[in-house]
Fold this sequence. Notes:
This protein is an alpha/beta fold. 47% of the residues lie in helices and 12% in strands. The protein has 14 helices and seven strands. It has helices at 7-17, 24-32, 41-53, 80-90, 109-115, 120-125, 127-134, 141-144, 149-158, 186-198, 256-267, 273-290, 296-308, 311-329; strands at residues 65-69, 95-99, 136-140, 178-182, 202-208, 221-227, 230-236. The chain has a five-stranded mixed β-sheet with strand order 1-4-5-6-7, with helices on both faces. Strands 2-3 form a two-stranded parallel sheet.
Amino acid sequence: MQIPRSREQARQVMEYLLSGQPELNEIVSFLQTRPVADAQTQELLGYRDVLWDRRRQANFGHVDLDIVGTGGVRRPRYNVSTTAAFIVAALRVRVAKHGNRGSVKPNGSCDLLEVLGISLTAMTARAVESLATTGLSFLFARDWHPAFKAIAAARAEVGYPTVFNLLGPLLNPSQPKHQLVGCGNPAVAQIIAETLMELEIEALIVTGSDGLDEITLAGASQVIEVRGDRMSTKQIVPEYFGMETVPESELVGGNATENAAEFLAILSGQGRKSLVNLVILNAAFAMSLVDKSYEIEPAIRTIRNALIDGTIKTFFLQFREFVMAKQLAI
């Protein structure tokens, strides 16, 4: 297989990869030629075209937002985007978060949800109903894109992120109007921004200077904004928003069990200050993306108050009860 140079060539490559014809070692060999840093806009669009046609389909109605990262951050990390999804949904933003298990260790969004007592099977079965009733749904990528199974073993054997890791943010089956996308590489973030512009999705693509695929508190963050046919890039620091820059060590997370404990602490008003501020800042940018009239500082105050008064925790408990109701009745 040759490296695709156009959208059509990328479509042909993906069709072949999913056809069942190539041997495992051929797929592995090809993936090894496509590290994340080599991604190109037309290549991603071509791969996405084929996978999109094979997705599991459902009518989700209007969806305001997805908050998603490209992953591959090779250090212990907290599930910022998953926590932010609960926060903004509790504040009446309709969120369908596309996610997966952790690619490096079991600490992805779906790993966390399982530890928090939410069955992935129930979550998928009630995805549309959950969004309609609660304003939030989590879409387990493996359930909604079964075609990926054909290349799963090869991706696991490669053992490091490839351009295929960048497809998750492009394949949310609910077709959200806005996306907050985290990407740990600023050059690759530019490619993702160009791709989302082609797909006519308004977005913020954020990169922490510490390599975090979130807006970070450990230094500056790059923020690329995509609105229609316009794109702009800026650098921000925590001090712009009344927060302090902290050492990277204060933002460290753990496995899904450890992160679940952090999650419940944050929702109970007892979380680590650095993690609380990290989550609040990312959630505030998500809210401002959906509602352009929402300034960051007022959004921060609204979110902080909602955490303190228990609004977010109550929403989480009600969401879990709704998703699991039929499961528990069986």
